[in-house]
Queue: 4 jobs
Job 1
Amino acid sequence: MHSRFSARTLRLALALLLTTPGLLLTACGNQEQTSAANVDYTKADEAIIQKYLADNKITTAQRQPSGLYYVPSTPNPAGTPAAAGKTVAVLYTGELLDGTVFDATAKHGNEPFSFVLGEGKVISGWDQGIALMHKGEKGVLLIPSALGYGPDGAGSDIPPNAVLRFEVELKDVQ
C-alpha cells in the first residue's frame, strides 16, 4: 500500500501540529498566566503523601527517586521478581487519598489485570511500582500525580493532579 504523502511531507505536518499550539500561546501575550497543565505539583504531592504517611502512622514506606512510595505489606523475596518486558498479573484497588475507590479488580470479576511491564501500557506509577515487587507480594503504591493521570485526571472519578493510592497484589510474573 502506497501513501499519497511522502515521509517528508508527513514529518513537516507533524512538526507544524506540534509547534503551532506553542506559537499560538506565546502570541497571546500574557505570559504571566500559568495553566494547571504547566504547574509542577512535585512539592505539593510530596507534602500530601508525607501527611498521609504521618496521619496513618506508616513507617515502612520506601520512597523512590521519582517520588513514588512503595509500602510493602506481604513480602515474598523468594518469588519471581517483576521486570520490564515480563507479563505481570495484578489484583488491585485504586483509590484517592480520601478513601474514594475509583477502580478495583473486584469490580471486574476479581480477575487479575495483566500487562507487559515497562511498555507504558499503564500509568508510570504502576510501571515503576510493580517493578519493585516479587510474585506473591502485596503492598501499597502511593503515586504522585505526575506518575498517575496528571493535569487531565481520568473521567469523573479521578480529578486533575490527584495523588493515588493502590493496594496491589502481584499474582503472577511470566
Job 2
Amino acid sequence: MKKKVSKESTKKLPKITVKDQKLPRITAKDRHRVNLLAYLADWDNTWPKSQKKLAAIVNISLETLRFHFVKAELDQIYSDALDLRKKNSYRQRTSVYDSMLKEAEDGNVTAQKEFLDRTEGKVTDKIQHTGKDGTPLQLVSAMPEPESIEKQSSETASTGIPSKGE
C-alpha cells in the first residue's frame, strides 16, 4: 500500500549555498583562543607558567601572542580554562576519592576527616557575636585618648623625658 503524498511535501526546497549565508568570519585570534582553551582544559596537559610556553602551545611566536591578546584577555582564557578543567575533572576526582576512601577504611584518621569534609561538608565553628547572656559586646580601644597623647607630648617637650605613668 502506497502512502499518499501531498503536493506541498513534494515541493523542492531552494538550494542554499555557503555564498548565500552570512557566516561569522573566524579570525586567527579566535583559532588561537579555541586551541589554547582546548589545551588548557585537558587535565593531562601541563599548565604553562609563561607566555612564551603559552605561545608554543599554539605554535606561534611570543610577539604574535602579544599582538592578538592583551594581558586581560590571557587572564580570561586562563580563568575559562580553569572552569573547564573543573568541569572535566570527574575522572581525577573519582580516583582521588577512591584512594582517600580506601585509606579511610584502613583506619587513617586524617583520611577519614578529609573524606568527610569533602563529601559531607566541613563542620563550621560556632562564632559568638554577642556578649554573655546575649548582651551587646563592649568594644575596648587599645589607642590612648587624644587628651593623654597631648599631655604626654607637652610633658616630653618641656622636660625632654617622658613621664613614668605614661
Job 3
Amino acid sequence: MKSGIRAIDFMNHKVVTVTPDMTVREAAKLMNVHRVGGVPVCEGKELVGLLTERDIMMRVTVLNKLPSSLKVEQVMQSPLKATGEKFEDLSSLARKMSEHGISKIPIVDDGKLIGIVTNKDVVAHAPDLLDTFIERLAASDKGMAGHPAAFGQCETCGSHGHLHFKMDQFICDDCIN
C-alpha cells in the first residue's frame, strides 16, 4: 500500500556530509556538533558511502584504532545497503529500513545526494500513514465477512486473530456477527 507521502515531502534537505579523505576523528566531531548518528560520504555531490556511529564503534573503537589515523573511506559502508529516490513512497522507504536493518536512507537523484530519511522521520509520519490505511480500508470491501483486513487484537473482546474493520474499529470474526 502506498501512503502518498513522498521522500521529497519529508526528507531532511540540509544534510551534513563528509568526504572519504577526512579523518574519522574529523567526521565524528561533525556528527557530534550536528547531533547526528550518521553522515553520507560524498565526493562533490556524488554519494559514495555512509559513515555511522556503529561503523566507528565496530571498525575503530573496538579494534583500539586511532580515529585521527584513519580515513573515512577505510571505515564507511560502501556500497550502501539501500538508497531512496525523491518520489519514493514513505512505506517503501520504511520497508527498506526494516529489510536491511538500517536507520538512515540517503535520497539520491541521478546519483547525487539530495536528502536523507531517518527512522525518526518515518515515525513522525506514522500517524499519517495509519490514517491513510484506515481510510482506504473503510472504502474497500475488506473488513466484511470473508475478507479479513488485518491480524491482531480485537478492539471489542481482546482476542487475537483475523480482524475486520467495522464501525471505525478492528474486530474479530466472533464479534462481527
Job 4
Amino acid sequence: MNKPCEHRTLRFLALLSALGIGACRTAEASPHGGRADKPINVASTIAGCENLDDCTRKCSDKNPNSCVSAGRLYEFGHGVAADPARAFQLYEQACDFKYAGGCYNAAVLLEAGKGVAADPVRARELYAQVCQMGSTTSCEQARRLGSDSKP
C-alpha cells in the first residue's frame, strides 16, 4: 500500500518538475531509513544531480532541470549558504532555455524582490511566458500583477 506522501509526490511529479519544487518531510518518504530530518529533493532527483557541483555542471551543459535544481539549493540554502541572487541567475538561465520552471521561479523572485530588485513588470512578463507554456497558475499570477499595476 502506498503512503499518502507517495501519492502526492507521484500526482504532482510533473508540476514539481516544472516548478523545481521539491520536498516531502515525512518519515514514510524519507530516504534515510525512516528519519524525517532531511527532505527528498525531488527537483534534484528529476534533474539527475548528485550534488550542487553536478547540477551546476549539468546546467552549464544546457540542462534546464539542473539549473532549477541548483537554483533551489541556493535560494533556500540547502547544503550551501543561501544566495537568492545566484538562484535568480540560475533560474534565468533555465528560462533562457525555455524551461517553464526557471521562468516561473525567476518571476517569483522578481515579484518578491528576493535576490534582485523587485520588478513586477518583468515578473508579469515571465508569468505570462509560462502561461503560454500551459500553466494556469502563471496565467493567474500574470493577471493579478496586471491588475495590481493599474491605477
